[in-house]
Amino acid sequence: MRLGKVTITTTSQATEDLSKVERALSLFLPPDISPTIRKYEGHHGNIIHLLSASLEKNRDIRAFLTLLREGMSRQMREVLCEQIPERMDADGVLHLRFDKQRAFLGEIMLTRGADSIVVSMKIPTYPKSRDEAIKRAREMLCG
Question: CB of 117 within 8 A of CB of 28?
Answer without folding.
Answer: yes
